[in-house]
């Protein structure tokens, strides 16, 4: 299998780089599988205190791989093994930092939101554009947006599919730190060094306590099931066809 994740160990932390630059690091099944495997490994490694996620060649991740989604039906969605890989990311016990440059959209944005801290470049671009494909986020994006930025702003992002910059994301409370363009990863490395000086078990318990307060299982289940059902709609097929043809979709509500 092609290596979709570049792994670098640096003393007390590891850097995992998403690398499918030809498609702006779009998340395919192989990438998610390799990400889950790497996180499982580092979760068991006492020498690694923090993990940084970033993307290759100026982008974090542009979303899910449209080529994989195009032919999927609702049944395929229910059976999709990628849900297990997303769960592995959610169960990672140690601090997880996202270093975001460029596009951080759709599934890429959902992946960043599963991190505990997000360092974003000023000119990073965040959004959940799934609505333009006749779909919705399916990996917890809606739930986390509603919790972190409230109803009005969450509705704005998921109903319109519009994007915001890293600076706006900081103002909205979506990211924890801001950096100059090209410097997000270095900022995250310095942050990882600070975290390495803390008490590991206390950090893990603190992380879990925050997530328990925020994550409601029933909301995540509803979001996932809704995404699966939408995979079989005519509007989803039209949305993806329009995206590929670079034209405006004509949705029919079917």
What does the model show?
By secondary structure, the chain is an alpha/beta fold. The chain has a single domain, classed as 2-enoyl-CoA Hydratase, Chain A, domain 1 (Alpha-Beta Complex). Helices cover 48% and strands 16% of the residues. It contains eleven helices and nine strands. The strands form two sheets. The chain has a six-stranded mixed β-sheet with strand order 1-2-3-4-6-9, with helices on both faces. A three-stranded mixed β-sheet has the order 5-7-8. Strand 2, helix 1 and strand 3 (50-55) form a beta-alpha-beta unit. Helix 1 runs parallel beside helix 4 (82-91). The termini are far apart. The model has no long low-confidence stretch (mean pLDDT 90).
List keywords for this structure.
2-enoyl-CoA Hydratase, Chain A, domain 1, 9 strands, 11 helices, six-stranded mixed sheet, globular, three-stranded mixed sheet, 254 residues, alpha/beta, single chain
